Structures are given as structure tokens and as C-alpha cells.
Amino acid sequence: MESKTRKELKSQYNEREIIGGAYIIKNAQTGRILLETSTDLRASKNRFDFSQKTGSCPVKKLEKDWVASGAGAFVFEVLEEHVKKSSRTSREFQEDMAALKELWREKLTGDNAVLY
Fold this sequence. Notes:
The protein is built from 4 helices and 3 strands; from the N terminus they run H-E-E-H-H-E-H. By secondary structure, the protein is of the alpha+beta class.
């Protein structure tokens, strides 16, 4: 099997499908949730999974509850996914995610969710 050149690997990386979106990290014991958005949901989920395995808190806002409840009390839930279109710049996609976060904040507070 032929190994791929650095240029080919870089090209594959740049052409991959980028999925961003809104997600929550929920404390299953207290019901409190942290709303976040990301331009790369897979990376955010991986960071959360790593934090759970190592016991390190992924977000400073959660630290007090993370220590009190333990890493196992928290779950990662995707609320909405968006594929980055090739016509959108990275900055535009970040702005889209910021707007998405505000839409979800309004929805969740309207549902009486307890946010961090």
C-alpha cells in the first residue's frame, strides 16, 4: 500500500465535511445545562469525552458542579447540526454559530431550562 504524501493528506483534511452546531452539556443530577455552539461538533464531543475519562472539567463555568457531581453526571447532547457550505468563510460560519446560540438560548429559556 502506497503512503500518502503530506500534500495529499492536507488536501483531504481541507476537503472534509465540517459540521458545526449547537449542543448542551447537561448535569443529569441537577438538570442544569450549559449551552454552547461549535464550528466543529466532532472536536467538541471528543474534548468532552476526554474530559470525562480524565476527570478534568471541559469548561470553567461547570467546574464547581463538575467537582461536586463528578464527571459521570454530565452528558453531551447535540441540539442542531449544520454542515459548513463551501461558499461560507470560516468567519461567516462562526457568525452563523453565534446566531444559532442566541436562537437556542431563547428557546431554552422559554422552556424554563436552568442555564449555567
